[in-house]
Amino acid sequence: MNKKMLQFISLEQSTPEKRDKSLRKNDFNEIYKEYITEKAAEQSSRCSQCGVPFCQVHCPLSNNIPDWLKLSAEGRLKEAYELSQSTNNMPEVCGRICPQDRLCEGNCVIEQSGHGTVTIGSIEKYITDTAWKNNWVKPIKVQKELNASVGIIGAGPAGLACAEELRKFGYKVTVYDRYDRPGGLLIYGIPNFKLEKYVVERRTELLKKSGIKFVQNFEVGKNKTLDELRNLHNSILIATGVYKAREIEIPGVNLNNIFPAMDFLTASNKKGLGDKVKLFDNGTLDAKNKNVVVIGGGDTAMDCVRTAVRQKAKSVKCIYRRDRENMPGSAREVANAIEEGIEFVWLASPKQFIGNLEVKEVEINKIKLGLPDSSGRRSPEIEPNSEYKIKADMVIKSLGFDPEDIPNLFNAKELNVSRWGTIKVNLDTMQTNLEGVFAAGDIVRGASLVVWAIKDGRDVAVQIHKYLKENKNKSKAA
Ligand SMILES: Cc1cc2nc3c(=O)[nH]c(=O)nc-3n(C[C@H](O)[C@H](O)[C@H](O)COP(=O)(O)OP(=O)(O)OC[C@H]3O[C@@H](n4cnc5c(N)ncnc54)[C@H](O)[C@@H]3O)c2cc1C
Ligand code: SF4
Predict the structure, then answer these.
(1) Ligand 2 surroundings by CB, under 6 angstroms
(2) Average of per-residue pLDDT across 214-231
(3) Closest CA to 451 of 244, 172, 258, 185
(4) Which of 31, 152, 221, 232 is the most exposed place for a label (fewest CB within 10 A)?
C-alpha cells in the first residue's frame, strides 16, 4: 500500500472533524480523486453490521447503508450502486453535501464507541461516481407510456426526484423553472467547492434523455398562471423552494455594496459555470481584495464566507448574534470556515451600516445571552453602550429565507398556505386544497435539506400516481 493511500485511510478513520481539518489542507475535490476501490472497501469493512442500523434510521431516505457497505467491502460495486440508487435519486449529491454528522454518520455505532464513524457519505459518493464512470447509470426506459401528464413547477431536488419517479411509471412529465438551468439550489445556491456543477448537470442531462421535458426561463405567475398550467396537465406539483431573503431593518441598509446572500452565491456559481456575469465582471459582486462582512450564522452564511475566501477577499468576518454553541448551522461547516481563516464575531449584532453612497463600516452592538426562547436557544440581548465599528467594503446579508407569496404570484388566491407562507398539504396525500395540485420540498417544509427534498419528491410521485390512477376518467389528453 503506498504512502499516500495510508495517509487517506488514517484520515478516513479519524473523526469527521479531524477529517475535515485534513480536507481543508487539500482541495475538497482533489482529496476525493484519491478515493480508490481499496480504500472504499477498507472503510466499508469497518462497518460492524451491528444489527441495529442507526445510520439507516437517521437517513431521511432510509438508505440500506449496511448492505451497500457490505457489497463495497466485497468489491461488488455495481451491486452496491444498484442498491444505493434504489432509494436515492442522487446518491452522489447526498454523499457530497448531506450534513452526515447530524444524520447517518453521527449515529454510526462505531462513532458512538469513539472509534470514528464509517465514512458513509464518502462511500456513497464513491460508489455512484464509479457507476457514472463505468456507464452503469442509464436513462429510464419506459415500459409503457401512459396517457397522462404531470407539470412540475421547480427543477430543484424535490421536483427532479418526483419527475424521475413519475417517468419510471410512464407519465409524460414537464418541468418548468424560472432559472436558465435546472437544479434549483443545487446549481445556483450550493457552491462548487461543495458540489461540483458537472455532477448536477449530468443528472439533469440523464433526465432529459429519459424523456422528461424541461422548460427553463419560465416563471409561473408571469409566463402562465397556475390555472393555465392546470389546464395543460392532469396533475401539478409545486416544488418552488423558499427564496424570500429575510431583511435587516437598520439604518444604512440601502447603501451600495450590501447584498443578499443568493445574489452573491448565484453570481459566483454562474461564473463557475463559465457565464458572463456583468455585476461580477465589473467587480461589484466579486469579493477580491475587499473587507467582507457576512451577517448570519447558518449554512448559507458559511457558504458565503468560504466563497469570499476563495475569491481572495482581503478579510472575511462573520457576524452572529449568539455564540458558537448556539449557531443554527452544521458544526462541521463552522469548523471548516474557521480552518480557512474566517474571523467569527460572535455575540454581535449590526446596529447600522455607515457610508456615503457605499458602505464603509458596520457599527456593531455587543450581545449577551438571556433565557432560552421558544426554540430552546438562549435569546440575544443588546448590551447598552457597547457599540464598536468594523471596516466593510462589501456586506452580505444571510439571515435565512422565507417562502414567497405563492398564492399572489401564481394568481391562485384560493391556494391555502400556513401563517409562514409555506404551502399547506394533506400530510397523507401531499395534496394541496386544490384538486390535483400537490406540493413538496422546501415550499412545504420551510428551508431544509437536499436529502429531505429528494425524499419528498419520491413520496409525492407515489401520491400523484395514486391520484391519477383513481381519477383516470378525468384524464386530459396531454
Ligand atoms: C446557499 C445554500 C446552501 C445550501 N447547502 C446545503 C447543503 O450543503 N446540504 C443540504 O442538504 N442542503 C443545503 N441547502 C438546502 C437545500 O439546497 C434545499 O433544502 C433544497 O435545494 C430544497 O429543494 P427544493 O427542490 O424544495 O427547492 P429548490 O432547490 O430551491 O428549487 C426550487 C426551484 O423552483 C424554481 N422556482 C421558484 N419559483 C418559481 C416559479 N414561480 N416558476 C418557476 N420556477 C420557480 C426555482 O428557480 C428553483 O429552481 C442549502 C441552501 C442554500 C440556500
Ligand atoms: S443520503 Fe445523506 S443521510 Fe442518507 S446515507 Fe447518504 S449521506 Fe447519509
Answers:
(1) 59, 61, 63, 65, 88, 94-95, 98, 100, 103-104, 120-121, 124, 451
(2) 97
(3) 185
(4) 232
Three-state SS at 90: coil
How far apart CA 159 and CA 441 sit, in angstroms, is 8
Residue 397 to residue 380: CA distance in whole angstroms: 18
Block residue for cell numbers 438551468: 181
Would you tell me how many other CB atoms lie within 10 Å of the CB of residue 371? 7
* Residue 450, SS3 per DSSP: helix
* Residues paired with residue 149 on neighbouring β-strands, in sequence order: 172
What pairing do the DSSP bridges indicate for beta strands 437-439 and 235-238? Answer: parallel
CA distance 208 to 187: 16
C-alpha distances out from residue 378 to 295, 323, 341, 347, 385, Å = 19, 10, 27, 11, 21
Average pLDDT (125-141) is 96
At 71-126, the pLDDT tens digits run 998 999 999 999 999 999 999 999 999 988 889 988 888 877 777 888 899 999 99
Question: Among candidates 325, 287, 324, which has minimal Cα distance to 303?
Answer: 287
Tens of pLDDT, residues 181-204: 999 999 999 999 999 999 999 999
Closest atom of ligand 1 to 304 CA is 1
Which pLDDT score, from 0 to 100, does residue 147 have? 94
- CB contact at 8 A, 211 and 220: no
Dihedral angle sign, alpha carbons of residues 457, 459, 460, 464: positive
